[in-house]
Fold these 2 entries.
Entry 1:
Amino acid sequence: MFTGFCGTMTELTCNDDDGACLLSTLNSTVNFCANPGVEYYLSVGYWTDGTITGNFRISIIENTSCSVLPIELVYFDAKQEDEIVNLNWVTASEINNDFFTIEKSKDGINYEFLENVSGAGDSNVPVHYFTVDENPFEDINYYRLTQTDFNGSKETFSPIVVRITQNENELPIYFDLYGNRVNPNNCATGIYIKQIGKSIEKVLIYSN
């Protein structure tokens, strides 16, 4: 049993009779789970030094025990870039996929909503997705991906972790009480603000 396109077929399964052709009647069964929208090809071949006669019949029987995954996730990745986190994921195939939900967490337990991203519906080719967390938490960030079908069924994947590294370059800013910049090393009355990243770490007041 094969799937794919002419010249690039992929074998799904095979059943070799292994000498059963010595019997007057040959019954062979091939079991596999079929995905909606995918074409499948059955190849039947034989080798013999004699002659084969008789009837040939193929029967297709539905097996409801098959569990078809709504999407096949290739990877889910998150990387820090300056003060944001870029999130990327790729699917190899999708079935009835409505949308993805990205959530984030400080502790890996309590998650909050970040964004919904529309899915491809049905697809048999790789699909790339991308979104951005513009306000990540300080230090550790957990990101979780959930896929939702059009019928409301959901599948949640294992979370990934990103540790945010801060820019340690200090950016001192000096002001006097009248709004002019001053040097705290002189005797002028002023305010010294030491800033690292987005937040003000401490405020020192000088006076003579």
Entry 2:
Amino acid sequence: MNDTAINPSTTLGAAIAGAVRALFTRPGLVTMALAGACATVAFDFFGQSLSPMLGFANLAPVPLANNVIQTLFGTAYRPGAEFLHYFAGMVAYPLGWMVLAHPIARALAPGLGWAVPAVLYGVLLWVFALYVMAHLVAGNPAFLGFTGITWVALVGHVLFAIVAARVVAWRDSTGEAGQWATA
């Protein structure tokens, strides 16, 4: 997933296609799992330990996931909610970074590096979690009513994206993340 393999003239479609090909290699899958694991630990540690210790809201992603399950299936299921939380953190969100957000950022603004696009990706994750899932799917107020948990969730999702992107960048720099295919 080497950044130098994609140049500014690469089309967006080719960048995404190359990212998908690179992801579905052993190094790409290891990178995704490592990025997801590190980012999920950072998100949970911040939201469930640091934030409450500092007097801010405690993030509760599993109860929110359980709310989504209850809305979709008519009954809550805690093991499914745990699975949904970890699947999002370990697979879906890092996958989104590796095959969409990062390739799009590199194709449209190759000089940005990974940090600025990661912050933007974190904001998009926050919108997805608190507007799409919590509001549109589970029926809670949009962005959970812009209470304290809203802003802790924003910081948590941005932190998640930064950690995931940094792990991917580190793996890229060591040559262990697979190679971005050029189309």
